[in-house]
Amino acid sequence: MTHVDHEEFAWRWAEAIVGTSYVPIERRVLASRLLGLTHQLVEAALAVEFDPSVGRQVGVDMVAAHFTGTETLRETLALIAEELPGLLDSAPPGVDAAGRVAQLVASMAAGYAGALRERSLDEQDAIYRAGLRARRQAEQALAASEAKFRAMFTEAAIGIAIADLEGNITDANSAMQRMFGYTYDEFTQLNILSAMVHPEDAASVWETYEELIRGKRDHFRMEKRYYRSDGGEIWTHLSVSLVRDEAGAPAYQVALLEDISERRRLQNKLEYQAYHDPLTALANRQMVTERLGQIFAGPAGHRRVGLCFLDLDGFKVVNDSLGHDAGDQLLKTVASRLTRCCSAGQLVARMGGDEFVIVVEDTAGAADMAALADKVLAAMAEPIRVGDHELNVTTSIGVVELAVADTNPEDLLQAADITMYRAKRDGKARYVMYDRNRNEREVARFTLSATMLAAVERGEFFLEYQPLVGLADRVLRGVEALVRWRHPTFGVLGPERFIDLAAESGSIVQLGRWVLARACEQARAWHDAFGAAAPFVSVNLAPRQLHEPALVDDVAKILLDNRLDPSSLQLELTEQALMGDEAGPLTVLTKLHDLGVRIALDDFGTGYWNLPDLRRLPITELKLAGSFAVGLQSPSPLADQRIVAALVDVAHALGLTVTAEGIETPTQLERFRAVGCDTGQGALFAPPGAAEEIDALLRAASPLCDVSGESL
Amino acid sequence: MEKPSWASDDLDIERPSPARVYDYYLGGSHNFVVDRRMARQAIDLWPELPLIMQANRAFLRRSVRYLVRQGITQFLDIGSGIPTEGNVHEVAQAASPQSRVVYVDIDPVAVAHSRAMLPGNSRADIIQADLRDVAAIFNDPRTRRLLDLGQPIGVLMVAMLHFVPDEADPASIIARYRKMMVPGSYLVVSHATHEGSPDQAGPHTELYRRAGAPLIMRSRLEVEALFDGFDLVSPGVVFLPLWRPDSPADVDDHPERFAAFAAVGRRE
Ligand SMILES: C[S@@+](CC[C@H](N)C(=O)[O-])C[C@H]1O[C@@H](n2cnc3c(N)ncnc32)[C@H](O)[C@@H]1O
Predict the structure, then answer these.
(1) Is A271 contained in some domain?
(2) A162 to chain B: nearest residue by CA?
(3) Is A646 found in the same domain as A578?
(4) Residue B114 within a domain
(5) Same domain? A286 vs A259
(6) Domain end among A216, A238, A265
(7) For residue A130, which residues of chain B lie inside 8 Å, CB to CB?
């Protein structure tokens, strides 16, 4: 019964205080705890020896259990004062239960207040100390980060300096000190506006700086030069930032400087290398292009420009006979002589090999350039010492002087180049002044020769064939292959228009190889179609080709490729090709002869060879020049006829066959036949024509130009 | 020399701190005059606040117990505040002694105090960090020591996400936590709402805004949206007292007066 009362009391207590304090327990648990306190209070009130401090302890326990809300105390005390006496029915007589409850309530209040005070003070103390610790930690973190920042500032590889808005340097890190050679103390005595100015700073440098100081910009970067404390110069990549105060007003400036002197040096060096010839230290072609570009960039006005294009005469011989070192030595000497001939504004450059150029700006007329060219020729007149040799080096110079408005860099250079070639052809060791009219012809030639190789590739060349006919039986023996160029702009060109050019430019080698190959292919085709009746092909060789030792292999390979008997091929060369005292051509010719290839000496009788010499030559046939045919046509041909007869006799005596060229009439045919000439060639039989025309002749298989019935 | 930005002074006990104001609501004395002044103002405007906070703590306790029953013994309590009765490690360790707890709070004083209270508990520790520094929190040696991320964990964000503004994109922050939580992990959230107490919500948020700790009340839908990638545990997103109450008697007639939603989600 009593027990139930206690429990009910505890429940009501719990009801009253739940929610008045934050106690993280369930109501059931709460009620059972309060039941414990209820028991204590009842026990105390009924005890024989009344101890009011039990109330105090209950107050302390409540605080410990976190019943600390202000309402909690009020509700608790009210409940105890009003309801606890109802649990004290069993109080022994003489016990003042109501008075004891009042005392218990009072001491509970005191215990509660005291405990709450202690607790609050403890918590205050704890949070205060937590605050202090947190602040200390924050300060440590700040100090650590400042130390980190300071360390970064000090140790940075990049120079960092701080200055006020007047330009007084207030701090400079060690990289900065090393870069400039000032100590920290020296630095902090310096002002940017005096110590950091370089005379060659662009005006914009300090305008930008002013803008920064006045807060108009927050940042700028540039490459800038400075003087070090020792007077040396450094290039830096500079980056300056403005730091503002809290109100946004400029406060001070921070500069970061990276030493890029080394990089600049390298850059300059690379730039220098890009524009200079390493051997002579003269400007190179790139520089010439650049300079001409500048000259032609501005408005032309009445400005004029001059250019000398020089090529040493016979430099190759020096290189080949004395070696490259000697050649280099020579070029260096020439370079310095040229430089001495020129004044400051004139650009001397080595274009490559033994070619040099002098560019002169703002010339007054051709006379200026002529004077310069004379000076150069004079300077070259003195022999040049290379090692143990005294070399007499001459040079050919093409000189151009034009109004800027009338030309452009490419044309100017080309004109000078072509004019230089003319100087070579005119006999070297001289200068030639550019002549616009002449030049245009040269340009056309030049264009032809420059495009010839590509034209071979593009298949612009083709062959025509002219029959070589047996004079006794009028049977087709062979054909002479004649090269033609179907030029896209100039139309079909005969060999006389391009063979010399090809020889000059060297493209004759490729062209010649092509002609040989093409002719042999055709020979093969005829063999396939006509067997033994197929003609041999006769291909012209340019003198230059005989200087190519590879020719023999080329011929052998082409024959092999086409499965041709060497006797199906005849090579024609002019007397001229065997002139000169070099052994090379003759050796090549001998080898070709040994291969079994027929060799014809073309145009015989026009030049240099006399009959006995023929003995020495590895040839199989003579082709008599067309002039003999002209002679035999004359009304009184006796003398000519006798000469031809003698030639034919000798040739036959030497085992050579004889072909007459230029046979245009039956008379000529008959007369050549009469003196024993073996074969003939000319319009009378057929002009040069396509392979198909030869096919037709072969198919007809009848004697060509059967004129036997005609009167003589 | 300019003070570098990483050395910002984030300790300012001249201003009220949500953690200490919350402590005052709960009857604690871990607070300073500024905190109490603000808390009293708030209570004047909204007398139920202490009750609401108690209900929040009660939810915290219930949710931790629930998680332990689901087998969770590792907890990451973000925005843990000032330690008071019924701390997560106490509740969890009472239910399962080997439970481990990593507390995280941004408030340096709360962290310093927590640290003073924690020594001796080798199964609980505290990190000072912003909720948003997910990588820093998971990489912290204390986290690595206490939590095995190969096993499910309970992540608590109780009464704290309303301090995260929309600009900070709380959903994406939670998504980053989710990536670190293996399936079977749980997310516990309670969040202030204007739903149910529209009159008090306005002045209350205004008070927090002026105190420099803006508080964003969110709707039920918005709170639900935070659980993207989680399965909401029954009863879903509900007012605080309605989330798995201990006894019917604990449920008020007007649960909406508690002005906060509670929810627990399970990582799929
Ligand atoms: C109202 S208390 C909640 C304490 C505890 N979670 C509870 O429910 O009883 C909110 C806590 O979140 C912390 N807090 C606020 N923003 C935070 C953030 N971005 N990162 C970490 N903690 C944050 C505050 O410092 C404060 O201690």
Answers:
(1) no
(2) B1
(3) yes
(4) yes
(5) no
(6) A265
(7) 30, 109-110, 112-113, 116
Assigned token pair, B87: 């701390």
Cβ-based burial of A636 (10 A; exposed 0-12, middle 13-18, buried ≥19): exposed
For the segment A503-515, the average pLDDT, to the nearest whole number, is 84
pLDDT at A448: 73
CA of B242 from ligand 1 middle (Å) equals: 22
A37: three-class secondary structure by DSSP: helix
CA atoms within 13 A on the CB side of A461: 29
Most confident of A31-45, A77-91, B67-81: B67-81
Is B158 inside a domain boundary? yes
Q: What share of chain A is helix, strand, coil (3-state, %, to 5)?
A: 55, 20, 25
Instruction: Write down the pLDDT at residue A707.
Output: 53
Number of domains in chain A: 4
Q: Give the number of A-B residue pairs with CB atoms closer than 8 Å.
A: 96
Measured between CA atoms, the residue of chain B closest to residue A120 is B29
Based on the fold, state whether residues A415 and A481 are members of the same structural domain.
Answer: no
What is the residue with the minimal CA distance to atom 11 of ligand 1?
B79
Give the three-class secondary structure for A92.
coil
Q: A389-391 and A491-493: which strand pairing?
A: unpaired
Q: Per residue in B31-84, pLDDT tens?
A: 998 899 999 999 999 998 998 999 999 999 999 999 999 999 999 999 999 998
Q: Write out the residue range of the structural domain in which residue A606 sits.
A: 462-692
Chain B residues with CB inside 8 Å of A149's CB?
A: 1, 4, 7
CA distance A221 to chain B (A): 20
Is the dihedral angle over the CA atoms A691, A694, A696, A698 positive or is it negative? negative
Q: Are residue A468 and residue A404 in the same domain, yes or no?
A: no
| Residue A437 confidence (pLDDT) above 80 | no
Mutate to test the pocket of ligand 1, among B104, B160, B217 (most ligand atoms within 8 A of CB): B160
Considering the domain architecture, whether residues A261 and A306 belong to the same structural domain is answered as no
Residue A450, in any domain of the structure: no
* A293 and A423 in a common domain: yes
Q: How far is B91 from chain A (nearest CA, A)?
A: 10
How far away, in angstroms, is B73 Cα from ligand 1 center? 22
Residue B40 is assigned to a structural domain of this protein: no
Two structure tokens written together for A180:
């400039």
Q: Phi first, then psi: what are they for A163, rounded to 5°? A: -140, 155
Residue ranges with strand state E in A130-204: 159-163, 169-172
Give chain B positions within 8 Å (CB) of A138: 9-11, 108
In this prediction, residue A698 has a pLDDT band, given cuts at 50, 70 and 90, of confident
Residue A619 lies in a domain: yes
ipTM of the complex: 0.83
The set of protein residues with a Cβ atom below 6 angstroms from ligand 1 is B 18-19, 22, 56-57, 60, 78-81, 104-107, 110, 130-131, 158-160, 163-164
pLDDT in tens, A542-584: 888 888 878 899 999 999 999 999 999 999 988 777 766 667 7
Do residue A511 and residue A633 come from a single domain? yes
**CA-based nearest residue in chain B for residue A136:** B11
Q: What distance in angstroms lies between residue B130's CA and the mean position of ligand 1's atoms?
A: 10
Choosing from B163, B177, B190, B205 the residue with most ligand 1 atoms within 8 A of its CB, the one to mutate for a pocket test is: B163
When pLDDT is cut at 50, 70 and 90, the band that residue B8 belongs to is very low
Final residue before a domain boundary, out of A99, A119, A139:
A119
Q: From CA A282, how far away is CA A351, in angstroms rounded?
A: 9
Residues A570 and A666 in one domain: yes
Structural domain including B88 reads 53-196+214-267
Tell me if A705 is assigned to some domain. no
Backbone dihedral angles phi then psi of residue A176, each to the nearest 5 degrees: -65, -40
Candidate from B106, B177, B204 with most ligand 1 atoms within 8 A of CB, to mutate? B106
Q: Is residue B167 part of a domain?
A: yes
- What integer best gives the mean pLDDT of chain A? 88
pLDDT digits (tens, 9 = 90+) for B250-268: 777 888 889 999 999 999 8
pLDDT band with cut points at 50, 70 and 90 for residue A610: low
Beta bridge partners of A198: none
Confidence band of A317 (pLDDT split at 50, 70, 90): confident
For ligand 1, atom 12, which residue shows the shortest CA distance?
Answer: B79
Instruction: Report whether the peptide linkage leading into residue B18 is cis, meaning its omega lies within 30 degrees of zero.
Output: no
Which pLDDT does position B99 carry in this prediction?
95
Number of domains forming the structure of chain B: 1
Return the pLDDT at B66.
Answer: 97
| CB spacing of B29 vs A123 below 8 angstroms | yes
| CATH number of the domain bearing residue B237 | 3.40.50.150
